[in-house]
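User: Can you predict the 3D structure for this chain?
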Amino acid sequence: MNKMRTRAVLLSILLIPALLLGNGLNLNGVGSKSIGMGGAFVGLADDFSAVFFNPAGLSQLKGTNFSFYFTDVIPTATYKLDMAGIDATSKTNHYISGALAAFFDVSEKIKLGFYADIPSGLGAEWDGKDLANLGGNFLWMSKIGIFNFGPAISFKASEKFAIGATVNIAYGIMEMQRPVDADGNGTMDAQYVDDGHGTGLGFTIGMLFKPSPKFQIGLTVKTENKVGFSGTANAPLMQQMGAPADSDFDRDITWPIWVGGGIAFMPNDKLTFTADVQWTQWSKIDHIMTKYADATWAFAMGQMGGDKMPFHWEDALQIRFGAQYKLNETIALRAGYYNDPTPGVDETANILLPQLSYNVITVGMGFNAGGPFSFDFSLEYLMGKDLEIPVGTYAHAMPGIHGMTMIVPNIAVHYNLSK
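Assistant: Here is the predicted structure, written as structure tokens:
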């Protein structure tokens, strides 16, 4: 029974990193213009990315609009553990995502449309040889993504006030491959795979107030979105307990409430300054329950508490700033900065989904030659603050020095049918 207890606890520890959906995963935005301005876009919201930042801003679009957005998230993680002789760098992977949107005028005051985007998506993959000192050459890989789609609408109540809303139909995927310490001797000696998907439903509601032609104020609220994941876990070591190597599971993960407030100031026709405060109620994620279809898996995990995963996350507040300068009627230059603190705690630090605090700088450019097509480009660079976990401090954390940087180039193409 002691051996069974040890293995069940190890499996429960293993499952925890598969669900760390912190700011290392969420880039919190879509759209090359908005990202080029540091994602400080709640108070401006004057292109298709308003569906994410503030749907009331869709009222500022003229005529029938189509937009396509493409981005490539390129993370580089580092992990150093001197006592094990490990100084590793993750493989360079490209996590492709993007967005599509179409909007048209129902009337002079109502704008209606449909969007599809991937606001969250990231992962990490390591060369097992670099981590062999932990025990064996195993696969270390993670991949998590959320795909949102739905209708969007805005209503222009007056020249100074507009409201808007989107329906966020979410489809999530997650995959994890990593080793496990099957016999409890402190080294990795068995492979584990976790693969699941699920759906959820949420809403975004926004307002935009223009007290003067040079000043705008925006406010946005995203409701909770519970995604019900179903999938299969594979751990051959369970066969030593008389259970099958595979078990189906169900797990609910709730993306919590997000609130954003922002201002935009246009002192003249060339300059625009923006600033946002964006808050996420991550403290709602205290723990996550997992239900296993196989009776032996369910019993073992239930007895040892492995079906209840502790998180104890903290709320996170982002401060964002952005600016745009129009060189002429064709070219606009953009730049931005934001601080992104991690909601995670040291007790669950791991190398598959690093949970670090970031300082982020962005640059961008817009190009509009006056025809129906216009283009936006931006580059986002996220600099993670190294996280050091001392050896023997936490039962559920990987000791060592964790690091992460990300480069995120992107492009958006717009077509205005009315031009």
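The CA atoms of residues 224 and 257 lie 5 Å apart. DSSP finds four helices and 20 strands in the chain.
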